[in-house]
Amino acid sequence: MAGSVNKVILVGNLGKDPEVRTSQSGQKIVSFSVATSDTWNDRASGERRERTEWHRVVIFNDRLADVAERFLRKGRKVYLEGALQTRKWTDQSGQERYTTEVIVERFRGELVLLDARGNQEGGEAPSGDGSRSDSYAGGGGYGGAPAGGNAGGWDSPGNSDVDDEIPF
């Protein structure tokens, strides 16, 4: 293979409100955690099982950092695109540690707010009539989806009882 690809796409919910800090050069940096969950029916017991993975996300894009700071809150559902990056650091006891993060960079990355504004508690919302979700792309694009932020598909409310068993 001539090249390689480092791209991460996540759809999940924020675990806590974003943390905002500023670099020495004045660039805004926003970090937060996103939970993604996988659910299935256990074949042996018939019970519904769930596994949750936590992903640390860091935004270095000033425009997306502003959006994240203003509109993201704990529990908010988001779609994001970025790249994996592992960094090495030393803890207080002098031990070397490694952290792998999803990095949303200045020109490569996207953040889309998926849930409806009406589901948000607190915080301010973008101006508009509230009839659609807002999305913000790395290039500053602005688009939307139908009310509720869901146009159907695999994550639509009507498909919540999908049986994971293969029919043959």
From TrEMBL:
PROSITE patterns the record matches: SSB
Function, as annotated: Plays an important role in DNA replication, recombination and repair. Binds to ssDNA and to an array of partner proteins to recruit them to their sites of action during DNA metabolism.
Ranges spanned by the short sequence motif Important for interaction with partner proteins, renumbered to the chain: 163-168
DNA-binding region location: 54-60
Protein name: Single-stranded DNA-binding protein
The protein's assembly and partners: Homotetramer.
Keyword Nuclease among record annotations: no
Cited Gene3D superfamilies: Nucleic acid-binding proteins
InterPro entries: NA-bd_OB-fold, Primosome_PriB/ssb, ssDNA-bd
Keyword DNA damage assigned: yes
Gly residues bias (residue ranges): 137-152
Region (Disordered): 117-168
Low complexity biased stretches: 127-136
Pfam family membership, one: SSB
Keywords tagged on the record: DNA damage, DNA recombination, DNA repair, DNA replication, DNA-binding
